[in-house]
Amino acid sequence: MLDRYIVIGNPISHSKSPFIHTAFAQQTRQAMEYAALLAPLDGFKATVKNFQLLGGKGMNITVPFKLEAYRLSTRLTERANVAQAVNTFRFDGDGILGDNTDGIGLVRDIESNLSIPIEGKRILLLGAGGAARGVILPLLQKKPLQLSIANRTRHKAEALKIQFDVYGNITAGNFTEFSGKKFDIIINATSAGLHDELPIIPVDIFIHANLVYDMMYSSKPTRFLALATQNGASRIADGIGMLVEQAAESFYLWRNIKPQTKPIIALLKALI
Ligand code: ATR
What we know:
Elements: E1 3-9, H1 17-28, E2 32-38, H2 44-53, E3 58-61, H3 66-72, E4 75-76, H4 78-83, E5 88-92, E6 95-99, H5 102-113, E7 122-126, H6 130-140, E8 146-150, H7 154-164, E9 170-173, E10 185-188, E11 211-214, H8 223-230, E12 236-237, H9 240-255, H10 262-271
Parallel strand pairs: 1-2, 1-3, 4-6, 7-8, 7-10, 8-9, 10-11, 11-12
Antiparallel strand pairs: 3-5, 5-6
This protein binds 2'-monophosphoadenosine-5'-diphosphate.
2'-monophosphoadenosine-5'-diphosphate (ATR) is lined by residues 127-132, 151-153, 156, 190-192, 197, 199.
């Protein structure tokens, strides 16, 4: 019987993870299968336990269950612990190892695929929700000169600064406070795009950036990336590379093998 993995979320039909992991499995000749599973909003734990009892080896967890997944883990990696969110389970006997591969996925996309080193750079992270929290430690581990966290609601950015201060040089504020400042890399981790909204940010921040990155993706440039381009950003990237890289890190946790990501990113870009 093949080793079984799933991605679990609500909604889930849009998920690209089955496509990505099936491609990884073919590429690395792993005897495994990977499917998508819709969990009821009030039935996450029961769905996980059932899959584990049936012999499932691991799963990815997506919206809105990453916090519940964090709480259900019996063991956590450091990056999942500080992110307070889990996107990957590996079932070890009765135990559940919880990991968070989102941040390393972002870092690998920026450094390996886009060839932009993070060390020494000034980074602006927009947003202070779960998506932002998940990438802060992996970004800081790459030793940027400075990480600025800007959020519509200032106190949430402040809270993240306090939590992560020990790991690096962080400043926090609302969007307007960063007007006129220079950044090398700007990352959108707000969920504004999900509601077809744009964060109201000072557009002068884009002019000096070497890279403007949106953790969201869509078939055409996201509204955020279009805004960046209109205001002088020299280079933009959406979150497809991050999506494939976080999947590759989950795959590595399960199979101890690193798949090649570039061909899958190219395939996915052609499909979306
Ligand atoms: P996620 O887990 O996707 O990060 P979240 O925890 O609900 O979701 O956080 C959403 C983030 O997007 C927050 O930083 C939120 O800002 P607030 O803290 O002020 O709510 C941000 N966000 C959502 N819609 C936004 C919008 N239209 N403009 C600016 N920021 C927005």
